[in-house]
């Protein structure tokens, strides 16, 4: 913590991890001046609305679905791609809402997820050592030393890319595509042909029947706007602090500061030290915020972090995303849950079953096992139930594409399939069918005991 009051740039007085080594600091400042003059990407009122929705989740009256790409790509700004990711998100939300009879808060890792923390400053590509790729907001992933030099103009490009993505997401979610009568259309063909897709069709027919039943009862479905549009929120890791600082805006209604680059910002496993710059920055913005919680987190670290980020003990302010790994979740999570509860922080607890379960095949390919993902989720639910804490959400890296990046699933991706369609810029993602399968299994885990709802 600094001795000065918080301001969007008070983080500059503290050590900041994972920042790019910009070759030309003057060019960075010029870029930031440009960003400061641009309109906000999201509005304070929307961030407050998400905060209220997360307060309901913290109280056990909802569930958080936090999903998207590991790293968005500047080269992949196409309408079909944005639409297909939205389709699988809507399908998962439908499965969870229907199966667990709970409102689902839809939060995308999208429209700004362009910066990546790295464990090492360099990486090997085909045997050649290069500066690490840090996300398209910073440098290019091409295996060429010149492409890896941090370029501040990429921050402006990230802003414009985010606007274009958000614009389309807003159009899709408010303009008819997310209408519940379209529930069948979200089933992409390659998904519909699979066992998971057929199971989804069963739910979609159930929804058709329910809508017909309500209409027959005299309910004017046209007037029920919840049936016709969806609230979709955006999020990304708040990693490159000058970028985030330059998009802070003071809300004209309340006078408070919001980071208007996304509705929710999170800090990662590598930047959650309460004494350093990322926590300082997030502590002062009024958005709902989140932190990843990895296996080295001690009870004291966690309580100190909660005290810094949620001093008012305000429901909806803070989400903790546990990513402990399938082997460790059973032993590490219960004391963390107890400590946060006993310290009186009404957080949302979510489970990221991806980042603690990375493996490398003998062929050197980064992957994750579907069974480990499900194993950590089951461990998370069991630990929460054991401590009387609401298992509030799931955080996944996925894509609407038919990729082969994670092994396993109902019609399993084999290790030998990994080379077939592997397009992630950083971490392996669940494909659309694997994601739908997770949603079905999580809906089962969430179902109230004794429920007879079909799925
Ligand atoms: C991520 O979510 O992409 C990530 C890097 O996670 P973590 O900080 O948990 O490693
Ligand atoms: Co990742």
What does this structure look like?
Helices cover 37% and strands 14% of the residues. It has 455 residues and is α/β, with parallel strands linked by helices. The strands form four sheets. It has an eight-stranded parallel beta barrel, surrounded by six helices. Helix 3 packs across helix 6, helix 10 (329-342) runs parallel beside helix 11 (370-387) and helix 11 (370-387) packs parallel to helix 12. The termini are far apart. The model has no long low-confidence stretch (mean pLDDT 96). Bound molecules: phosphoenolpyruvate and cobalt (II) ion. Cobalt (II) ion is lined by residues 70, 355, 397, 426-427.
| Helical residue percent band | 25-40%
Number of helices: 12
What is the number of strand segments? Answer: 14
Q: H/E series, N to C?
A: HHEHEEEHHHEHEEEHEHEHEEEHEH
Identify the bound ligands: phosphoenolpyruvate, cobalt (II) ion
What key attributes describe this structure?
two-stranded antiparallel sheet; TIM Barrel; eight-stranded parallel barrel; single chain; 14 strands; alpha/beta; 12 helices; binds phosphoenolpyruvate; 14% strand; binds cobalt (II) ion; 37% helix; 455 residues
Helix and strand layout, with pairings?
Elements: H1 25-36, H2 44-58, E1 63-68, H3 79-100, E2 104-109, E3 122-125, E4 128-131, H4 153-174, H5 189-192, H6 195-216, E5 232-237, H7 241-246, E6 248-250, E7 257-259, E8 264-267, H8 277-284, E9 289-293, H9 299-309, E10 318-322, H10 329-342, E11 348-351, E12 358-360, E13 366-368, H11 370-387, E14 391-397, H12 432-446
Parallel strand pairs: 1-2, 1-14, 2-5, 5-8, 8-9, 9-10, 10-11, 11-14
Antiparallel strand pairs: 3-4, 6-7, 12-13
The structure holds phosphoenolpyruvate and cobalt (II) ion (CO).
């Amino acid at each position: 913590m600094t001795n000065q009051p918080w301001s969007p740039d008070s983080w500059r007085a503290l050590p900041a991890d994972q920042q790019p080594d910009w070759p030309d600091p003057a060019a960075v400042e010029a870029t930031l001046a440009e960003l400061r003059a641009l309109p906000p990407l999201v509005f304070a009122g929307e961030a407050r609305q998400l905060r209220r929705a997360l307060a309901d989740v913290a109280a056990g009256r909802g569930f958080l679905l936090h999903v998207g790409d590991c790293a968005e790509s500047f080269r992949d700004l196409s309408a079909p791609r944005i639409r297909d990711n939205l389709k699988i998100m809507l399908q998962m939300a439908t499965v969870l809402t229907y199966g667990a009879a709970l409102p689902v808060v839809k939060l995308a890792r999208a429209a700004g997820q362009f910066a990546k923390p790295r464990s090492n400053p360099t990486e090997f590509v085909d045997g050649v050592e290069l500066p690490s790729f840090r996300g398209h907001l910073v440098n290019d992933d091409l295996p060429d030393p010149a492409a890896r030099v941090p370029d501040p103009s990429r921050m402006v490009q990230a802003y414009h890319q985010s606007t274009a993505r958000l614009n389309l997401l807003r159009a899709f979610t408010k303009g008819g595509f997310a209408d519940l009568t379209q529930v069948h259309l979200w089933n992409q063909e390659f998904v519909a042909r699979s066992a998971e897709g057929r199971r989804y069709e069963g739910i979609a027919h159930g929804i058709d029947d329910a809508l017909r039943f309500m209409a027959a009862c005299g309910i004017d479905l046209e007037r029920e706007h919840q049936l016709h549009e969806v609230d979709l929120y955006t999020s990304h890791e708040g990693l490159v602090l000058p970028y985030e600082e330059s998009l802070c805006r003071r809300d004209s209604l309340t006078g408070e500061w919001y980071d208007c680059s996304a509705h929710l910002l999170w800090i990662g496993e590598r930047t959650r030290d309460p004494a350093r710059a990322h926590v300082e920055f997030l502590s002062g913005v009024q958005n709902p915020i989140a932190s990843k919680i990895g296996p080295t987190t001690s009870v004291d670290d966690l309580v100190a972090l909660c005290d810094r980020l949620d001093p008012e003990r305000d429901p909806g302010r803070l989400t903790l995303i546990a990513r402990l790994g399938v082997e460790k979740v059973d032993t590490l999570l219960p004391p963390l849950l107890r400590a946060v509860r006993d310290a009186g922080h009404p957080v949302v607890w979510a489970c990221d079953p991806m980042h603690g379960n990375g493996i490398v095949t003998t062929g050197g390919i980064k992957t994750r096992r579907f069974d480990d993902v499900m194993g950590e989720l089951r461990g998370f639910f069991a630990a929460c139930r054991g401590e009387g804490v609401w298992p509030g959400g799931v955080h996944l890296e996925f894509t609407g594409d038919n990729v082969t990046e994670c092994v396993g699933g109902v019609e399993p991706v084999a290790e030998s399939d990994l080379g077939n369609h592997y397009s992630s810029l950083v971490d392996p993602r669940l494909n659309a069918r694997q994601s739908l399968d997770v949603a079905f299994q999580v809906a089962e885990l969430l179902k109230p005991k004794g429920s007879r709802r079909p799925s």
